[in-house]
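User: Hi! I'm working on a homework problem where we have to compare a predicted structure to a textbook description. Could you give me the structure for the chain below?
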Amino acid sequence: SPSLLRCEPPQGLLFALVAMAVLHLLAPLGRVVPRDAFWAGAGLALLGIALSHSAMRELQRADTCTEFAGRPSALLSAGCFRLSRNPMDRRMVLLRAGGAALLGSLG
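Assistant: Happy to help. Predicted structure tokens:
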């Protein structure tokens, strides 16, 4: 049923990162990202974590909902929300890209 396949984006991010690591360990199909990009991947992942922390802090400061499916009580336009309407989505992209560069393999 569709409800069994449904998950919130944070769980989807965790699933994607775990799947990337498992595929890297069990079936690496070759390195597609040079080893020199390891630190760039770490930087992207850290940037994603910092962006997530900043967004959560801004949401708490505005006393609005911090849950993904919650209903916000304020429209934020300061901090990281000044640059992006969806910084938590940007966080997921940065963490996935950073994880891919850290692993470096196609598997």
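For your comparison, note the following. The two ends are 29 Å apart (CA to CA). The helical segments are 2-5, 9-26, 38-61, 80-83, 87-103. Good luck with the assignment!
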